[in-house]
Structures are given as C-alpha cells and as structure tokens.
C-alpha cells in the first residue's frame, strides 16, 4: 500500500492512491445497487446459554455477495454505507429481514429464540430510528422481547443524551439493548451507569488471550462481575476454544458466541442446528 516506499516514491504513491480511490468509487456504485439487485443476505451466528449449552438465539450478520467482487466483508462496506448514507436503507432491510426470520423460527416452534441486530451510528442517530424498529416489529409480527439491538460504545457516545432517550424508548417497547464490543470503546463507568442496556458483549480481543494472560482473565472476570452487579446479561464474543468455554462457565458468564460453537450460518444451516438439539 501507500505506506511502502518504492524506488520512485511519488509515482508509486500516486498510483496507489488512484487505485484505492477508483476501487472506492467502484465499490460505492456497486453498493448503491446492491439492495435492489438482491445481493445481500443475512447469516445467523448462534449464541448459546453457558448454563444449559442450548441455543439461546442468534446474531444476524450481513453478507454482500457481488457477482464481480465476490464476498465483501461488512468491515469493508459498512463504513462506506455509513459515509454515503446508504446505511439507512440497508439497515432498514437488515432489521426487517432479521425480525421476519426470527418470527418464522418462533412459528416453527422455537419460541424462545432471540435475534440480535447490529445498528451503526448513522442509522441509530437519525430521529426516525425508533419508529423504524416499531415498523419492523409490526410488519414481522415478532414479539419485541425477542429482539436485541446491538450498539457499540462509540455509536452511543456520539450523542449521549439522545442515545439514552432512544434506548429507553426501545426498552419501553419491550426491545432489548446490548453494548457490543464492550471494553474497546471509550465509555467511562460514569457513562455506563446512566445507559439503559440489558446485555454486555465482551469484545473478542479479551476472550482471545484469556488463557495466555492473567491480566486478561482479571478483566473478563471484572466485566462479568460487573454485569451480575448491574443485573444485566453478559455475552462472551469470539469464543474459539474449549478451554475458553470452560473458564467462562466457571466465571458464570451467561452466554457465549464464537467459532468454537459455530461460525455465522445460513438460515437453513442454523435451522438444522435447532432441529438437531431437539
Ligand atoms: P460484531 O457485531 O462484533 O460481530 C461479530 C463479528 O465477529 C462477526 O464478523 C463474526 O463473524 C465474527 N466472529 C464471531 N465469532 C468469532 C470467533 O470466534 N473468532 C473471530 N475471529 N471472529 C468471530 P462479521 O460478520 O465480519 O462482522 C463484522 C462487523 O460488521 C460486526 O461486528 C458488526 O460491527 C458489523 N456488522 C455485521 N453485520 C452488520 C449489520 O447488519 N449492520 C451493521 N450496522 N453492522 C454489521
Ligand atoms: Mg454485534
Ligand atoms: Mg461484537
Ligand atoms: Mg465488532
């Protein structure tokens, strides 16, 4: 990339810039058409209850499959969707699709399944957001208690007083709110005590090193203890080994999610998992 210095620095740099700028423009023009061309789908990653080992629900994760670019990861196109405003329509589609899917699973008999939906800053911070959630609930017929909205600290902190209001509105509708990637943001504990939320999701960077470092264990332990004290649920993200699961269970973490349990699955494969566990 532009950071590497070639022989002819200036030329190399400008070529790289052009390539990146062009790629971005191309990506943007493709992204504009992706919804109408039906190029998005959702994957569902199971969350299990550590007490029972059973599936508690899933997190909906967007996937973009472009005919020419192939699979583009959300880490690459969500920021672009944010910058261009396309996130409004994409986010709306995710919300409705996820609610409908979860309702379908309820109708199949899996009545306690929860669905978690990620919401990014520009989607959450627009005034119509709560109404949009209400609309998705009405259209899908999903009981709002089974919808969980995932917000990162940076999303909430962008406008803290508005965030508190909107989170309360969601909770008054029966919807639950999670703080995603907890521990990586900048929220101080004094913010945390004012934020109305139901679940803390411990960022996977803490879970990753849980067995190689005592300080990492101490942090995870402290977050779980804090969760119990605040009477909220705690989810461990990015669980990749059996040792991690064991330890999290000992620490009385409520839920776990990660590649050790399952990768994000198509709705069909998620269903197979439900059927198999009976
Ligand atoms: P996130 O909400 O923290 O989602 C968890 C991410 O961690 C997912 O990446 C998931 O595939 C990955 N993951 C799960 N278990 C493991 C594990 O054991 N190890 C490792 N290394 N990774 C694991 P994904 O699907 O690429 O999504 C990345 C991020 O993009 C999400 O982070 C979320 O912030 C955003 N995102 C995904 N879908 C949506 C969406 O529908 N709307 C919005 N606004 N953002 C989304
Ligand atoms: Mg999430
Ligand atoms: Mg996360
Ligand atoms: Mg993340």
From TrEMBL:
EAL domain ranges (all copies): 24-278
Spans through the membrane: none
Source organism superkingdom: Bacteria
Protein name according to UniProt: EAL domain-containing protein
